[in-house]
Design a protein that fits this description.
Layout (H helix, E strand, L loop, with lengths): L1 E5 L3 H12 L3 E5 L3 H20 L5 H10 E3 L11 E4 L5 H11 L8 E4 L6 H5 L8 E6 L8 E5 L6 H13 L3 E4 L8 H17 L4 H10 L6 H8 L1 H14 L10 H9 L23
Parallel strand pairs: 1-2, 1-4, 2-3, 4-5, 5-6, 7-8
Antiparallel strand pairs: 6-7
Helix pairs in contact: 2-3, 9-10, 10-11
The protein binds 1,4-dihydronicotinamide adenine dinucleotide (NAI).
The site of 1,4-dihydronicotinamide adenine dinucleotide has 28 residues, from helix 1, helix 4 and strand 6.
């Protein structure tokens, strides 16, 4: 099988690693030449961490690197059996990506979106064959996080859903099917968690203190370390999307502290500064 990836940011590269580790050939591209040029080195670095921990051999690392082929344009993804987009969280951009991709692909290829908060049905709406689009929502960092939410929209074909599930389970993931409802399962449950942390911050507690308390209470990572890992921009987009979809219910309130963080460009790891980053988070998942 050949997996196509569009978008080589934090998620796209991690998803590429997941399938390449499972033995699939991966073709991947990004609109930004810098993201394409750095992808091989970023993957090599991520895999080096696993070799250092004894989780894989140097020969396995080389083989995985050999299975990632970074290509210059979307047209080069034509041989793929499953194409997953992980571009910016904007409906019009995702729709445009699939509109360009759809005519190039084999008739039985599956299209998947890694959206965290948009409607899968809305992304499928402009397609000539919407029945082959599903949501495949990976978590960050994709190689380390076991869960993938699988989201059919009302028109998804059972065969496309079954094949997306089996390819992803074969890559070692726990696949949970979700309804195409705002936030699916995890992001919906997580909103009030971030919200209370942001409310405490606005009441004057330091982000590092809140994180330290939550980590000591047994959470694998504190709320602000998690926002820094995910990206405050991505977190804000998901919160706004849920707030709109849930008619501005107070559980999904968009806190000014989060908006201000994004306006300052303090997005977390990807910008080099966040709520607690570059201080090491109290605890975090490793791959
Ligand atoms: P990112 O900002 O790290 O990467 C996005 C990449 O897409 C960039 O390299 C950008 O150059 C590229 N891109 C943008 N427009 C493009 C286009 N039209 N064609 C090709 N490439 C394009 O973002 P990240 O964090 O990887 O998120 C990507 C998607 O995954 C979003 O939909 C986000 O909601 C979702 N997601 C993010 C998670 C996170 O923790 N960051 C977790 C789960 C899902």
């Amino acid at each position: 099988m050949t997996i196509g990836i569009i978008g080589l940011g934090a998620m796209g590269l991690g998803i590429a690693q997941v399938y390449a580790q499972a033995g699939q050939e991966v073709l991947a591209t990004d609109a930004d030449p810098a993201a394409r040029d750095s992808a091989g080195a970023r993957l090599a670095q991520s895999l080096a961490g696993r070799v250092a921990k004894g989780a894989m051999t140097e020969a396995e690392r080389e083989a995985i690197l050999g299975r990632l082929r970074v290509v210059a344009q979307v047209e080069d993804l034509a041989p793929a059996d499953l194409v997953i987009e992980a571009v910016v969280e904007r409906l019009a951009v995702k729709q445009a990506v699939f509109a360009a991709l759809e005519p190039l692909l084999k008739p039985d290829a599956i299209l998947a979106t890694n959206t965290s908060s948009l409607s899968v049905a809305a992304i499928a709406a402009g397609l000539a064959r919407p029945e082959r689009l599903v949501g495949l929502h990976f978590f960050n960092p994709a190689p380390a996080m076991r869960l993938v939410e699988l989201i059919p929209h009302p028109g998804t074909a059972p065969d496309a859903l079954a094949r997306a599930r089996s390819l992803t389970e074969a890559a070692g993931k726990t696949v949970i099917q979700c309804a195409d409802r705002p936030g699916f399962i995890v992001n919906r449950c997580a909103r009030p968690y971030y919200g209370e942390a942001l409310a405490l911050l606005e009441e004057g507690r330091a982000a590092g203190e809140i994180d330290a308390a939550m980590a000591a209470a047994g959470y694998p990572i504190g709320p602000f370390g998690l926002i820094d890992l995910i990206g405050a921009d991505i977190n804000l987009a998901a919160t706004e999307s849920l707030a709109t979809a849930m008619a501005n219910h107070p559980r999904y309130h968009v806190f000014p502290a989060l908006r201000a963080q994004v306006a300052r460009g303090d997005l977390g790891r990807k910008s080099g500064r966040g709520f607690v980053f570059p201080a090491p988070p109290a605890a975090m998942p490793t791959d």
